[in-house]
Structures are given as structure tokens and as C-alpha cells.
Amino acid sequence: MTRSRTRLERGRNALGPALQLVHTGRAPTRAVLTTELGVTRATAGAVAAELQTLGLITVDARPGAPAGAQGRPSHRLSIADDGPVVLAAQVHADGYRAALVALGGGIVATTPACQTVDADPAQVIGELVAAGAELLAASGRRCVGAGLAVPSAVAEPEGTARGPLHLAWPAGAPVRDIFNRCLADAGFTTRGHCGNDVNLGALAEHRHGAGHGARHLLCVATGHRGVGGALVLDGRLHTGSAGLALEVGHLTVDPAGRPCQCGSRGCLDVETDPLALLDAAGRPPGPEGSLLDQARDLIRTEYATDPAVRAATHAVADRLGQGLAGLVNILNPDRIILGGLHRWLLEADPARLRAAVRDHSLWGKDSNAAILPCTLDHNSLVGAAELAWQPILDDPHAALPG
Predict the structure, then answer these.
(1) Angle CA 288–170–154, to nearest 5
(2) Which residues, in sequence order, are CB contacts of 157 under 8 Å at separation 6+?
(3) Other Cβ atoms closer than 10 A to 386
(4) CATH 3.40.1800.10 is held by the domain 213-373
(5) Do strands 154-155 and 77-79 pair parallel, antiparallel, or not at all (unpaired)?
(6) pTM for this one?
């Protein structure tokens, strides 16, 4: 094989890794790209130029260097402003929303949140795809994929929502098939991907948010109802043999606690979700706003002034800490991120929650896992987009023919 052919093949094989580095913000310049890929400057330049030709990134034609920097200035790499997008959609217990998401995790456009979820998944998914088609037509952008986040474990390889407990959908609803049928009916030519909402939120946080750089990332989050968990190992979701791993909401923290829909009692799912906090504070759910919004507002506005709210917050945080400690003992993560209500429990009293984890953990003070709040708005939407972007990140040429 000639040297030029070897360079060509090396550059082609580096397209996916290079795009992933730019996508996650790890290669802001061509010099960094060269170092991260372990290739020559010429090969890195050719790779960056090819990604620009594909319309995915922009290479700054005039390299510059920050004031005081030494060495040759390098070309900056950024996501193309007019590049392709993917359709991202999310369904949760209190509503659903569609968005267009660019490389880099930026939300280009989003629909208003719908508040009522029909018992027919085909009706909801069809409305999401139709709303996404309207966003796409208005944007003038090219759509290269589609992803859907649902509040259920999604079994693989069949793509069914195994247990949408807080929706009126039937167990085993074929959400991926429905999604792909709706996409085809709406004129989309891309394949649809589906996943659990907390799994996808964790993936988004790992690539663009609070989990960036973690090797063993544990995410635990409340949705609008219930609790979910996810584990990202070396950049990839751990979903188990059939897509059903990390149902942490069904970890028992109080054997005498509330009955759970899984058949047990005192699970995180029913002891640390928004409804549990409202119940503990003696506040019946109101007609306005989602349960998640009501719980957030209660902590933010009354934690400091109302003893009942403060006691309820402490009780729920202590139960969460006990559950997190059990997960730390089993999984030994290097970082824990908390979303939804759990994020606000952490913000209300960081020391209390961290102490609860430490006191129940086998490793105690020796545990090195940082506990941080999630930082991305709509991280499950962004995560649904990550599913859609993955084939392009793996092999841009194969996924973007022509």
C-alpha cells in the first residue's frame, strides 16, 4: 500500500472520532484535534476539511491565538451554523415536546410543551412527528436522524416500552415501530431511535453537561413521576443484555413505605419523587403546573421559611441518600449527577445529602464520587438527539451518503 493510500485510509478512519471530539467540545482547534487523534498535522487538516465538506463543521480560515499564547496559532473548529439537525422528541407523564437539535447538543428550535398525554401512543408520537415536521420546514435545515425519549425501559432488540408505569400506555407498546411509521408517513427519510428518558439525559450530560469527563457516571433523576437511573461507562450507556438495566427507582429504601407499582414497598420511585415530597409537606397537588414544577417551586420558595417544607425536604433527601449509598456500594462511580427534584434536594442542603450518602456507604469518607446537579435544560431531549446523531458520529461518510 502506498504512503498516500495509507494516509487516505487513516484520515477516513479518523472522521468519526474527529467529529465526536468536535461534537463534545474536546477539540476546539485543529492543533488539539491533531493531538487527540494521534495523527500528523496534515492528516488532521485533511480530516477537518472533509468534515467541513460534509457540512458538519466549520474550519476558521484565519487561525488566531489568544493573547499571551505561544507557538503557532491554530485553526478553530466549530459546529456549522447551517449544518444538519436531528428531530428529538420526549414524552413524560405530564406532557410531550419536539425539538430540532444540532451537533454539539444545541437546541435549534422547540415546540411548546403539550400537557395532556393520550392513552394511545400512536396518537402522541404522531403529533410529535407532525410538530417536528413543521419545525423542520420553518428551519430550512436538513434532517439526518430522529430520536425519541420515553419514561420507560425500552427493551432491545424489539424497541418496546416495557413498563410505562406513569402513562396510560399499554405495557410493551412498540414505540420504535410506531415512531418509524409516523416518520415515514410525515415524509422523513431517516430512521428513528428510541430510549429511556433518564438514560438519554445521562448520555447528554456526559457529552455536554455535568458528567463531562467522567469515566463511570451514575445519573439518578426524578421525572414528573417516579425515579430513574443510568450508568455511562467510558462514554457508552450501560443498558444491560436487553436494554433494561439500571431501574434504580425500584431500589427499596423503606420496607414499610408506600406501595410501588412494581409490587414492592418503599422504593425510591415512590419515596423520593415529586409526589412524595408534596405528600410529606402536606401539600396536595394543585391543578396548575406539573408535579415536578410544583415540587421545585415549593423547595425554592418555602424551604427557608416553612418548617414543614424543610422537614419534608430533609426526609426525602435522607431516603435518596440511602439509595445512592447502595448504588455507590455496587457500582463505584467516579461521579454522581442528580436531575429533576433530586437536583433541587441537593441545592437545598448539599451537606445533608452528601452526608447521608457517606453515612450509608461502605466506603464512607473514602468514596471519591463527586455529587453534582445536572446542568442541561431539556437533557432528555438532547439525549434523544444523541441517539439520532450516533450513526453519524460513528461513520459520517456511511451515514451521510451523497
Answers:
(1) 90
(2) none
(3) 28
(4) no
(5) unpaired
(6) 0.91
Q: Looking at this protein, which amino acid is placed at residue 390?
A: Q
Interatomic CA distance for residues 28 and 313, integer angstroms? 41
Amino acid identity of residue 282, one-letter, is G
Q: How far apart, in Å, are the Cα atoms of 128 and each of 93, 139, 146, 150?
A: 15, 16, 11, 12
Residue 265 in contact with residue 256, Cβ under 8 Å? yes
| Whether residue 234 has pLDDT greater than 50 | yes
Q: Vertex 209, ends 96 and 149: CA angle to 5°?
A: 25
Domain limits, CATH 1.10.10.10, in the chain:
3-79
- The confidence band for 10, taking pLDDT boundaries of 50, 70 and 90, is low
Among 138-152, 176-190, 233-247, 262-276, whose mean pLDDT is lowest? 233-247
Q: Are 176 and 154 in contact (CB under 8 A)?
A: yes
> Which grid coordinates are listed for 67?
493573547
What is the CATH code of the structural domain delimited by 3-79?
1.10.10.10
Interior angle at CA 330, CA 328 and CA 334, nearest 5 = 45
Task: Please name the amino acid found at residue 309.
Answer: V
Residues 23-62: b if buried by 16+ CB within 10 A, e if exposed: bbeebebbbbbbebbebeeebbbbbbebbeebebbbbeee
Q: Which three cell numbers stand for residue 398?
A: 456511511
> Could you tell me the fold of the domain covering 85-199+379-399?
Nucleotidyltransferase; domain 5 (3.30.420)
